[in-house]
């Protein structure tokens, strides 16, 4: 009866969402977070990782940044993701620096975790309540290390997301850097810029109009549901563009390009719609590429 009741409740919720125009046409609700990635998840080293901004853009004259960050924050995010790569959670912990191990032992009372979930909880607690902080600076707003990025002001939003493969998930919670705030604070754009192209690991790209990216719910994000992004969902950093199908929220982000001309990305060239508005059901374009 439990499974049947769940199905009935989901159908009822779907009907209510459709009646209120909250659920886009052709979509079905899910309580899970399906994983859809073309190819393997990239493994990364946050000591050398960076996020770049290029194209028709310069740093604003005199723009710089100074902010606070947990002394071990970047390493904690690294260990969080290593826990998904290593079969044995203790190996990910023992590979961390002595300073990180000491801080984790103080916080959790142990370094011996029987299950990955226990280790993840301990690392998340260390991120949320860092024992020490430090000041970091950046005088080059076109390039950000992971630690510098973590020191930027963030916002939290709760929003619905919609995948082109016909699932929708309501009330997802994210934290990250509002794209519009970042642009207005640090960047000097050519007035002719009309598009933003996200560049990701493995050469993946996706494109969006600049005015869509400037909506107040568009983020450069590294936190989902109160904890760091995991590899399956785009770690270490992704974009979040809720008003478009979810392939437009680029996983494994490495750079953002500002362009005067449109540059369709991987799925757009393969036949997906160039705009991808779920409420207009813009799933596919005029041609279907290799699909």
Automatic annotation (TrEMBL):
InterPro entries: OxRdtase_Mopterin-bd_dom, OxRdtase_Mopterin-bd_sf. Residues 10-19 have a biased composition (Basic and acidic residues). Residues 139-267 form the Oxidoreductase molybdopterin-binding domain. Residues 20-29 have a biased composition (Polar residues). Residues 10-29 are annotated as: Disordered. Pfam families: Oxidored_molyb (PF00174). This is Molybdopterin-dependent oxidoreductase. It comes from Phototrophicus methaneseepsis. The lineage of its organism: Bacteria, Bacillati, Chloroflexota, Candidatus Thermofontia, Phototrophicales.
